[in-house]
């Protein structure tokens, strides 16, 4: 069930209910379902099919997107029905009370956080080195990148000053490293330079 559409400035019609149903459900199915399950009497039922645009897969094989197709049924009611109040229609105190009730029953904030974490984890699928850093907001990610760059610049500056001090003191910057095994008589010994 979805909220009825009420044009701007016109009152809400309590004698009408709107449903989104699968395309295979007929008007008589809706009428009998409402009567059998809820005991609701109906006066009329109007339906409209909303066909989703189809597109091809990346390989161009088969059309996809039909799962978004639905049927809208507008049902006339004998007795009035008022849709539960939206959060936007409530005053501040009622909204806070409703949010607190929803949080106690369904832990919506935790679920949202877990969904974001799972989305990030799944988007990194196949990466063995991935670990959650705790940053999902753009500003936090940019701060983390700036912090890492500052640390890299500091380390680079330390290496530059160390090399300058060694040069000024007359110490060699590159050291000779001897071979690990003795060379054969016919071979000359090679020296490896390391930093």
Brief summary:
The chain is of the alpha+beta class and 195 residues long.
Care to describe what's here?
The strands form 3 sheets. A 3-stranded antiparallel beta sheet has the order 1-5-2, covered by helices on one side. A two-stranded antiparallel ribbon has the order 3-4. The longest helix is centred in the last third of the chain and has 32 residues, at 138-169. It is an alpha+beta fold. It contains 4 helices and 7 strands; from the N terminus they run E-H-E-E-E-E-H-H-H-E-E. A hairpin with a 6-residue loop joins strand 3 and strand 4. Keywords: Ribonucleoprotein, Ribosomal protein. GO terms for molecular function: structural constituent of ribosome. Residues 167-179 have a biased composition (Basic and acidic residues). Residues 184-195 have a biased composition (Polar residues).
- Any idea of the CATH topology of the domain at 16-84? Alpha-Beta Plaits
Query: How would you characterize the largest beta sheet?
Result: 3 strands, antiparallel
Low-confidence stretches: none
CATH superfamily (homologous) name of the domain at 16-84 = RRM (RNA recognition motif) domain
The helix fraction, in percent, is 25-40%
> What's the CATH architecture name of the domain at 16-84?
2-Layer Sandwich
Distance between the termini: 71 Å
Spatial sequence of strands, sheet with the most strands: 1-5-2
**Overall pLDDT score:** 82
Protein name: Large ribosomal subunit protein uL23m
GO biological process, one term: mitochondrial translation
Family: Belongs to the universal ribosomal protein uL23 family.
Organism: Boletus edulis BED1
């Amino acid at each position: 069930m979805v909220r009825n559409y009420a044009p701007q400035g016109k009152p809400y019609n309590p004698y009408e209910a709107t449903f989104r149903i699968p395309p295979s459900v007929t008007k008589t199915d809706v009428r009998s379902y409402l009567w059998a399950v809820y005991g609701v009497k109906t006066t009329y039922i109007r339906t409209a099919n909303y066909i989703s645009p189809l597109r091809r897969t990346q390989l161009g094989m088969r059309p996809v997107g039909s799962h978004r197709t639905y049927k809208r049924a507008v049902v006339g009611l004998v007795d009035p029905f008022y849709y539960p109040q939206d959060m936007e229609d409530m005053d501040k105190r009622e909204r806070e009370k409703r949010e607190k009730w929803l949080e106690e029953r369904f832990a919506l904030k935790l679920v949202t956080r877990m969904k974001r974490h799972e989305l990030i984890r799944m988007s990194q699928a196949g990466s063995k080195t991935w670990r959650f850093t705790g940053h999902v907001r753009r500003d936090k990610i940019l701060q983390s990148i700036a912090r890492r760059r500052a640390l890299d610049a500091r380390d680079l500056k330390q290496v530059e000053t160390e090399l300058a001090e060694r040069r000024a003191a007359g110490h060699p910057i590159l050291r000779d490293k001897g071979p690990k095994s003795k060379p054969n008589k016919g071979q000359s010994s090679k020296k490896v330079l390391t930093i």
